[in-house]
Each structure stands twice: as structure tokens, then as C-alpha cells.
């Protein structure tokens, strides 16, 4: 099974909608140990991209690249460069592909994580979105190596994203603004890990809807 | 929430419009909607001095763009770093052919966006060097100074870096002067009330009535201690006890003292605080060369104040004393 790269529109729109629907939730989570603007900024970036796309079709990789550019060039903060880099590096690694196979997708996710590692010092266990993204990368690489069914692998990735996000609850933040809180950051989900989980699950659902 | 607003999502753009209408003799718009530049920028043959940061800290950051301070500033959303693209365009707006000094504060978003912008500038043949302010004593222990945040000490860094550039310093000299300025500077804040992001509508942290938070950050980052609200003399003692030994500032030193309100504290109370701070500093045999008291670097509607002390040498003294004309700081 493959996702035709040409059929990017429903995947991207699913991601936009998921972030939009969770604007308030993300803001509330961020407010507990951050400054409460995460939902607002993410929503602004994703919705801006959605409006620019309008009724147009897009490939999956062009869509990720355009979304990344909007976040990087128009949103700023920490999330602009972080998600901008993830999406643009994911897109870069597969822009020539007509068919996104499980193997290609695993490489895309890995490229996104590597790009992220190039600009942040956070690593697994630091209570950041790395704790959501990294297990998803590992899960997809394993699934690709085992030649798993694409749809089943996407379901597993959703579970990994959820587990990864939940794991941040018991962690003490070591990177970014909430790290200044030390022990006081324990017991609360990380906002970036949460938005990353929402985004990856929406991406997986969008991909499943166009698997052929 | 009792605030003066239209749509809170547009507050930054509307503030910028109003700012340029008011201070059109000092700053101008640029091709990037989130970059303001000094009216005469770029100055041919002068090192460009650039800063930038999230909004909500007026007069910082655009309030320090103007004669003999910064040539341009990148503007972010409230409490959120400007984009890499905005920093890049700010570099270009300031570039007079001698390179650009980007002087900003130590926050993760700003660090990432500046890093990306510097890389993009390099590709376009523009040399940018940076100094990252880390004057906030309360934000990390002394042996981890590289983790400390930048707060009101940034103003003195812009003052010295900007003056050095205006006096003809080359890029390395401007960077060295700005670095020396921030290395000679220590700050601490005390918060009395939390602040509210207009688009969020309620405070996202709490300072209980009758208490104060010592060491609070400009975005409500938790301080080192929450204690009962004290009188001005005790507050001054607490602040000087944190700031003075950290550098340390000692008898015989000559310093600049800057007391800034955090946004909602009446300015008269800042003078009450400075009156106490001055006594404690002079008691220690430290000479105050110049003092600044007012709302220089704020945190939306937070109540409280920051104390910043900078040790002077002959070079920093000359740079501090140079005249300047910005919205936030005018000196003749």
C-alpha cells in the first residue's frame, strides 16, 4: 500500500483541522507551565496555511514544505523554527517521490527528527516534543524493516505518539522555558509534546484516508 | 480583563502602527511588517546594531531603535520570538556595509530564530555577529551563567554597543563593547502581580495578594523565592543583596543603576524603591555615575520592578555618556 504524494490535500487539511480544534486545549496545557500562547500560535500558523491553500490541490511534500515555511517565516517563537524545520526536512527527504511507501514515510519522519536535532539541544527524556516524535520515528523504522502493513503501522504510530506524549507528564523539563521550573514542571504534560501528538495522529489519519 | 483592545490577535500590528505614527521622527517602517528601523538606517560605513524579541515589553525592543542605539529591531508576537525572516530583514535594514551586531536576550525561541537568520544572512554575504544578554542573576546559578536570561541589562548592552558603532568601532569592537557591557551587568526582578496575555484573557500564573516573587522573569518565569510583601526598604535590601555580591560590585567601583517598572507599578513607587537602593549602594562605598528610573523594560501589566547594576570602566563610561535619541531613552 502507498500514499500517492499527489494526494496531499486531505492529509494537510486534517492536520490543520486537528490543531484548530485543539487551540484552546493546547493553550490551557501551555498555561500550566508555559506562557499559554502555544495553542494560539500553532492555530495561527496552521490556519494561515489552510487559508493560503484554499481550494488548491497539493502534493503531500509540497504541503509540508509550505506549512513549514508559514510556521518558520510568519509565526516565530520557538514553535516556528521547530515545526518549520521538522516539516521542511520531512518534505525535502521525499519531494522526488511519487509514491510514499511505509519505508519512504519512515525516512521522512527520521529526516524531520534529525533536522530538529540540528537546531535544539533537547533529546529524549527532556520533556519536549522529542518525546513524542522520537518513538514514532523508531516505530515506523521498525515497521518498515519488518515490512508491516502501512495502515497497521500508522495505527501503531498513533499509539506511540499517545504513549510518548503521556510519558512527558512524569518528566522534569530540562529544555526551553518550562525548564526554569525544575521539579514544578512534573505532573503536567508538555505542550509541544501534546501538539506534536495531535499533529502526528491527524497526519496518520489523513494518510490512512488516502491509502491505496 | 480591563484592557484597551480591538481584536487581541491584531494587537502587535496595531501597536506598531500607533508607534510609527507617534515616533516618525525616530523610526520608520521597512518592507517587513515586523521590522522597524531608525529613520537614517542603514548608515553607510557604520556597523549595524540590531535587536529583537517578543512584544509586551515596551519600550523594549523597538523603543531602543534610534540615534546612537539600535538601527533596527525585529518584532515578535507577545512574549514570543520574532521569526528568523524578521531577524534577517532587520539585519538587512541595518547593514551599512560593515557587518551587523545582533544584541539580544537569552531565550530559546530568540536563540533558534537568530541562529537561523545568521545562517541565512551568511548565504547572502552579510556578516552578523551576536551577543546574548544574560544579566538575570535569579535565572541560574553563577557557574551556569550561560543559562541566565537577559532582562533590563539589555538596555545598557544596546546603549554601549550602539554608541561604539556610532563612534566608528568595527564589528569586532562593537561586539566586544556589547559583550563587556553585559558581562559587567547584573539584574534581579521582584514581581507583585502576574501579567495577562490579551489573547489569553487571564493570568497564567499566580502571585497571591500579600506576597511577592523574588527573581521573577519577564514572562512570569518563577523566581527563587515567594515571600510576604515587604516595604520598599526591605525590597531594596533584598534586591541589592542578590545583585551586588554576584558580580561582585565592591567599594570603589563606579556603576550605572537602572530601576525599571514591570508595567503596572506606578512610577512614583519606582522612585521610592530607588531612594532605598541608592542608600544601600552608596553605603557600600560604590559610586553611582548615572541612574535610570522608569518603565524601561516591562512585562505587560505585571506589578513589580527590576534592579540592574553595571560596573563602569573608562570605555563603558564614554559609551554610556554618549547622547542618544530613542523612544525609550533620550540623553543629551
From TrEMBL, chain A:
Entry-linked Gene3D superfamilies: 1.25.40.340
Coiled coil: none
InterPro entries recorded: DhaK_L_YcgS, DhaL_dom, DhaL_dom_sf, Dihydroxyacetone_Kinase
Source organism superkingdom: Bacteria
Location of the DhaL domain: 6-205
Keywords: Kinase, Transferase
Pfam hit, one: Dak2
Record bears the keyword Signal: no
Protein name (Swiss-Prot/TrEMBL): Dihydroxyacetone kinase subunit L
Source species of the chain: Jingyaoa shaoxingensis
Gene symbol of the encoding locus: dhaL
UniProtKB/TrEMBL annotation, chain B:
Matching InterPro entries: DhaK_dom (IPR004006), Dihydroxyacetone_Kinase (IPR050861)
EC numbers, comma separated: 2.7.1.121
Alphabetical list of Pfam families matching this protein: Dak1
Alphabetically ordered keywords of this record: Kinase, Transferase
One GO MF term attached to the UniProt entry: phosphoenolpyruvate-glycerone phosphotransferase activity
DhaK domain residues: 7-329
Enzyme class: transferase
Annotated SUPFAM superfamilies: DAK1/DegV-like (SSF82549)
Transferase found in the keyword field: yes
Keyword Transferase: yes
PANTHER family on file: TRIOKINASE/FMN CYCLASE, TRIOKINASE_FMN CYCLASE
Protein name: Dihydroxyacetone kinase subunit DhaK
Biological source species: Muricoprocola aceti
